[in-house]
Amino acid sequence: MPRHIACLSFDFDTWSGFASRGLTTPTPISRGEFGVIGAGRILDLLGSRGIRSSWYVPGVVIETYPQACERIVASGHEIGHHGWSHVPPANLPPDREAEEFGRAVETIRRLTGHGPVGYRSPAWDISDRTIDLVLQHGCRYDSSMMGHDCEPYFARRGDKVAADQPLQFGETTDLVEIPISWSLDDHPHFEFMRTKEFLMPGLANAGGVLENWIEDFEYMRRITEWGMLVYTFHPYVIGRGHRMLILEKLIDALGEMDAVFMTLDEVQQEFRARSSATSG
């Protein structure tokens, strides 16, 4: 019987993503803080539809807004590891990456009563050490890579990559990779950002973005018997009025296509069960 899964995931970064880029003046910080307002709106919407989702929260955000994070947990949503700061692991020295990773695990443990099952790297840029850290700390899945669009797979470590040589594949691990995509992320579509180094135009028409998001799910239904898509949202982005409306419309449209809404933890469990049944 066909089964098609939609994962609604939320990167609750608030101000931490701006601070990691050196944007620490009052205006960008307040822009990130709007995420707390957005998170409340999102939780109200998800609660009204009976949908559980996955939230990835940096440790600094958990400690800054404990009540907002406690509400996420109390509402039955998954809390995943999203670093201590929002600095991408690929930009951290080894000892700093390890220290921040462990610190965030303990922060999540204090919030939820247990360690995280899943990890998502800030800015989706892991180092060649990250997979080892994820496994060492007992996580069962990662959601930072893009090797497929609608099917999980087991992540590799130790690839050898050079621009002028064929790729040498590393070891396949027991870590389930639940792939993501920038096209299914609200941030590049909607957020206007300008610094001395770059310009991100953002501010796309919401209706066009919604059409893309729906049609990706429609295509998955056409080509797979079992598949999943991960949508990634940021409360300070999707929490704005017209974007909350398209989130509501997306949920309705997916429901009309018989989508099964699941957390990423539930997806990795189902994928493992399917993989065991196939290999057995």
List the helices and strands and how they pair.
Layout: E1 3-11, H1 16-20, H2 26-49, E2 54-57, H3 59-64, H4 66-74, E3 78-81, H5 94-112, E4 118-119, H6 130-136, E5 141-142, E6 153-157, E7 171-177, H7 186-190, E8 193-194, E9 199-200, H8 206-223, E10 226-233, H9 235-238, H10 241-256, E11 260-261, H11 264-279
Parallel strand pairs: 1-2, 1-10, 1-11, 2-3, 4-5, 5-7
Antiparallel strand pairs: 6-7, 8-9
Helix pairs in contact: 8-10
Would you tell me which CATH topology applies? TIM Barrel
| Shape, principal axes of CA atoms | globular
Give the rounded overall mean pLDDT.
96
Structural class based on helices, strands and sheet pairing: alpha/beta
Percent of residues in helices: 40-55%
Alpha plus pi helix count: 11
CA-CA gap between termini: 20 Å
Superfamily (CATH H level) name: Glycoside hydrolase/deacetylase
CATH class reads: Alpha Beta
Number of spatially distinct domains? 1
SSE series: EHHEHHEHEHEEEHEEHEHHEH
Radius of gyration: 18 Å
Annotation, overall tally of beta strands? 11
Show unreliable segments: none
CATH architecture group name: Alpha-Beta Barrel
What is the oligomeric state here?
A: single chain
Pfam families: Polysacc_deac_1
InterPro entries: Glyco_hydro/deAcase_b/a-brl, NODB_dom, PgdA-like
Domain NodB homology: 26-262
Function: Is involved in generating a small heat-stable compound (Nod), an acylated oligomer of N-acetylglucosamine, that stimulates mitosis in various plant protoplasts.
